[in-house]
Design goal:
With about 60 residues, this protein is mainly α. The protein contains two helices and no strands. It starts with 13 loop residues before the first helix and ends in a 5-residue tail after the last helix.
Length: about 60
Amino acid sequence: AWAILIGPEGGFTPEERDRLRGLPYATAVSLGPRVLRADTAATVALTLWQAALGDWER
């Protein structure tokens, strides 16, 4: 199973980050320093995920 977590505009709290980083099956990834709307962040994250999986390779 896969999950992409999109945080709030202000980011995850330190406690939330620590809890997520403590999960053995979680990998933290950032979309960069810019603040994105939640719907934009979700679209970007899914696009990057599909590219990483090779969905658009010929």
